[in-house]
Amino acid sequence: MAISRFFRELRKGYQSEIDDLSSDSEGKNVLKKRLAEKHSQLKFLLQMIEFNPEMVAVIFHQGFI
C-alpha cells in the first residue's frame, strides 16, 4: 500500500511533536507526563484538528497497544 504525500508530511509533523514532548531541557524523558497533560487538554486541542492534526494525534500515542 502506498502512503500519500499528505500522510507522509503529517507523519513528519507527528514525529516532530513526539520528539518535542519526549524530553525536557535537562534531557530527562518526560513523554508520559506530557502526554497525560495533553490528554487533559483534549477538548481544547480538538479545536486545532483541522489546522494542526499532528498536535491532536499525539494524544493517541501508544493508546491502542
Secondary structure: elements and pairs:
Elements: H1 5-22, H2 31-40, H3 42-45, H4 53-57
What does this structure look like?
- By secondary structure, this protein is mainly α.
- It contains four helices and no strands.
- The chain has helices at about 5-20, 30-40, 40-45, 55.
- The longest helix has 18 residues, at about 5-20.
- The radius of gyration is 13 Å and the shape is globular.
- It starts with a helix and ends in an 8-residue tail after the last helix.
Report a brief summary of the structure.
The protein is mainly α and 65 residues long. Helix content is 57%, strand content 0%.
Tally of contiguous helical segments:
4
* Secondary-structure element order, N to C: HHHH
Low-confidence stretches: none
**Quaternary status:** single chain
Query: What percent strand?
Result: under 5%
The N- and C-terminal alpha carbons lie at a distance of 23 Å
Overall pLDDT level: 86
Cα-based radius of gyration, to the nearest Å: 13 Å
3D shape? globular
Helix content: 55-70%
Largest sheet: none
Structural class: mainly alpha
> What is the tally of beta strands?
0
